[in-house]
Write a structure and sequence with these properties.
Elements (H helix, E strand, L loop, with lengths): L50 E5 L6 H11 L5 E4 L10 H10 L4 E6 L5 H13 L4 E5 L20 H10 L3 E6 L9 H10 L2 E6 L4 H14 L5 E6 L4 H8 L8 H9 L3 H17 L4 E7 L7 H18 L3
Helix pairs in contact: 1-10, 5-6, 8-9, 9-10
Length: 321
Amino acid sequence: MVMGPCGGVRPDGRCEVIDDPCVFPEPVAWPEPSGLTGPVPAVPLARTPLILTDYTAEPYSVRALRAVAAALAPVSDAVLVGEHQNRPDYPPTLLAELLHEAGARPWITLACRDRNRIVLEQELIGLRHLGVEAVLCVTGDARGYDVRPDVTQVFDLDGPRLAALAATVGLAAAVPETPAAPPRGRRPFRLLQKQRAGAAVAVLNHAATGTVAAFMAAARAAGVTIPVIAAVAMYTDALSATVLSALPGLELDPAAVQRVIDAPDPVEAGLAAATAEAAALLAIPGVAGVNLSGLASGRGYEYAAQVKADCAARIREARPA
């Protein structure tokens, strides 16, 4: 990784992978010593989604993919297809084709963990050929020591350099940023460097509304002009809340989580909380949309997809005409 720090810095400044301080005390500026110099022109989005919904389904199941897409596509401007170190799925180009056929508008995540630069170029060109508009360019979470220890981790590139590569092949590069991860005061600068690397849009990780508002004000003051999509935490039970709470760099209010879990109807309470969070985030200057993010429910992927779809419908109903 050249352009750190990543979003996985723990609150005490230590790395999420090894028990040592993050090796990037300050964010690295673009250009960096890789042969890519100067700002990279971004490929702009045709339209920024108001609602970007996480797509999560049983891996390697076309039936499950179609069921989840059928729930999400009618109420989502796009679906964000993640890539997880412990849950591999079909190749990105195949996922994109299947989701297109199912009526969804996929934004595909590409991670540098399992692909060298040549394979990343192949995936990007294939996604462009399929008409995928945006690719979320991430360095990728390192594989757990107990997950496929026989497989080599690649990391030829990191997220910002992958964003530059995506822009050069004609794709809109989406990039993540984590307002709640150290060094908080330098995260707006880091997003500015990703913008200089060719990013067309940013997708924030979970943070309190106040944290997002302060981050957005600082980012705009620093010169960030790309649209920003803020994350809405989707949880309706203990399992879906735990999945979010366990990740470094994420900021969830434990009291708010407990109120949802202890409510007589946790699903309704979770939907109400997410809808209110979406309204608060969309009121922040510079926030162009929201990402309905998280597992949403421990009752299964298809049930969770319906929870997200219900939340998306409520957000649209609450928006002024």
